[in-house]
Amino acid sequence: MGIAIKRVYEKPEEKDGARILVDRLWPRGLTKKKAKIDLWLKEVAPSTELRKWFGHEAPKWDEFQARYKNELKNRGKELSSILEMAAQSQVTLVYGAKDEVHNDAVLLQKILLAKLKKTGAN
After folding, report:
1. 29: in domain
2. What is the pLDDT of residues 56-69, one digit of tens each?
3. pTM of the predicted structure, to 2 decimals
4. Which of 9, 33, 47, 79 has the fewest CB atoms within 10 Å distance of its CB?
5. How many domains does the chain have?
């Protein structure tokens, strides 16, 4: 049980558990079969406006985090569904960004793990 993150372009593995795509756009060059996505939650991805503003520019990371957290306040239902899955079995949030440090999945994982810890489910 837990929440991991992984680039969608990395080879899917059994240990990934449920693979949840947390990007608003489908990853380029990947078929549904190859990506092995169990659930696509576009709703938890940053808004198009925020995604375009950020552009994966590391200097904007702190501000991006604040804005993205604010957007997630309206996504309680979707976050709860991920938490419910993670309480039962392993979940892997998959994303397409090249930057493995400055992307929405990194922050989303951090937020979800903190919520799991508060509930004592992890």
Report:
1. yes
2. 999 999 999 999 99
3. 0.92
4. 33
5. 1
Query: What's the chain's length in residues?
Result: 122
What tokens were used for 78?
């979707």
Q: Is residue 122 part of a domain?
A: no
Looking at residue 70, its amino acid is N
Residue 2: count of CB within 10 angstroms of its CB: 16
Of 52 and 120, the structure prediction assigns the larger pLDDT to 52
What would the 3-class secondary structure string for 26-78 be?
CCCCCCHHHHCCCEECHHHCCCHHHHHHHCCCHHHHHHHHHHHHHHHCCCHHH
Rounded-to-integer distance, Cα 26 and Cα 61, Å: 23
Token code pair at residue 4: 């991991």
Hey, what amino acid is at 42? K
pLDDT tens across 78-112, in order? Answer: 999 999 999 999 999 999 999 999 999 999 999 99
pLDDT at position 118 = 81
